[in-house]
Design brief:
By secondary structure, the protein is mainly alpha-helical. It contains 19 helices and two strands. About 1% of the residues have low confidence.
Length: 369
């Protein structure tokens, strides 16, 4: 397509260039006008140093004067104030008529004068003129039309200062797999921690994660133990889980290798038997006859146990003649003699009083602890 037929919007390229030339003259006039406003504001209220014995820029006198000037010429206080500040940073000989007043105002943020005056004469590489966005980039301000990922991210941050807007944006972005994939593991963890502060949400997320074998496989042994302990605080859950685990031979074998666990299981079995017996005695019509038979059997068992012990001791003790036991062997024998002596006292108490309760010390001796 010939160059004179290229369109910009609804006009040809040629007409567009005419409009640009015309508006550049308008911008130059506006810039000159803005500098005139700034110079006159400076004449009324020269710039003053902050601190020391000189009044600062925010004194009521300065503000009142500039407010009166703004009202008298039909502008806002901030417009007059910015024009004054910009004019103070750009002496007449360093102002560029081909650069807009806004660019002058932005580059006025460069503190060093030589750097500032050099910068306005040298547009960025690849550019023939300064633009407002290029000036903002030069001084580190946010641009109106972001180009780089960093500028776009900064624009999003500014737009998402409101908590609800930030939440909506974050939710939408995390729904895009390509975006979520670029989030670092540390940031994902922090995000999950924030999102799961609500206990209901945390429970739902944890449940979902624990259903994924690849996730549970990466959980340390210590953390798995803690998780199981937390999940089995409920008695019914603990009972069902324990029952299921003890049905696994390897698990049951390892569990019974723990002295305390074995003692608790044995105690549970005895307690279960006791409860079953009490239930039988309360509810069965043949319980009295069975009790009589059991008492006779218990008497015979007790006599047989005593006889067996005496006979076994009679065979074993003579074998110790002229034999010197080691200290460890003596300790073991003494511990067992103490258990036997405590048991004999228990038997005598039961026979004399009918009371078979076991106190704590006796229970400890009988369990071998």
């Amino acid at each position: 397509m010939p160059e004179n037929h290229i369109e910009v919007g609804s006009v040809s390229q040629q007409r567009y260039e005419q409009i640009v030339a015309e508006l550049r003259e308008v911008v130059e006039q506006q810039s000159r006008g803005s500098f005139v406003i700034g110079d006159r504001a400076l004449e009324i209220e020269p710039m003053r140093e902050v601190g020391g014995g000189t009044a600062g820029e925010r004194t009521p006198v300065v503000r009142d004067s500039l407010t009166r000037l703004a009202e008298d010429i039909g502008l806002s206080f901030s417009a007059v104030k910015n024009a004054r500040s910009t004019a103070s940073r750009w002496p007449r000989e360093h102002r560029r008529p081909d650069v807009s007043f806004k660019v002058h105002r932005l580059l006025a943020q460069i503190e060093d004068e030589d750097e500032r005056f050099t910068a306005i004469c040298n547009p960025p590489v690849g550019k023939t003129r300064w633009t407002a966005d290029e000036a903002s980039r030069r001084v580190g301000n946010r641009v109106e039309y972001p180009i780089s990922p960093e500028e776009k991210a900064s624009a999003i941050y500014d737009l998402a200062r409101d908590e609800q807007v930030a939440a909506a944006v974050t939710t939408e972005l995390l729904r895009r797999p390509a975006v979520a994939a670029q989030v670092s593991a540390e940031d994902k963890i922090r995000a999950v921690e924030e999102l799961t502060r609500d206990e209901g949400v945390a429970a739902a997320v944890t449940t979902g994660l624990l259903k994924r074998p690849a996730v549970t496989a990466q959980v340390s042994r210590e953390d798995r133990v803690r998780v199981v302990e937390e999940l089995t605080r409920d008695e019914s859950v603990a009972t069902e889980v324990t029952t299921g685990l003890l049905r696994r031979p390897d698990v049951a074998f390892k569990a019974m290798s723990d002295d305390r666990a074995r003692h608790e299981v044995n105690h549970a079995q005895v307690e279960r038997g006791r409860q079953a017996r009490e239930h039988f005695e309360r509810t069965s019509p043949v319980a009295p006859a069975v009790r009589h038979i059991e008492r006779t059997m218990e008497f015979m068992d007790l006599v047989t146990a005593c006889h067996s012990f005496v006979a076994a001791a009679g065979r074993a003790v003579p074998g110790l003649r002229d034999r010197h036991l080691g200290e460890d062997e003596k300790t073991i024998v003494h511990e067992n003699v103490a258990r036997v002596r405590a048991t004999l006292d228990w038997i005598e108490t039961a026979v004399d009083t009918g009371k078979v309760d076991v106190d704590g010390e006796l229970a400890r001796l009988l369990s071998g602890q």
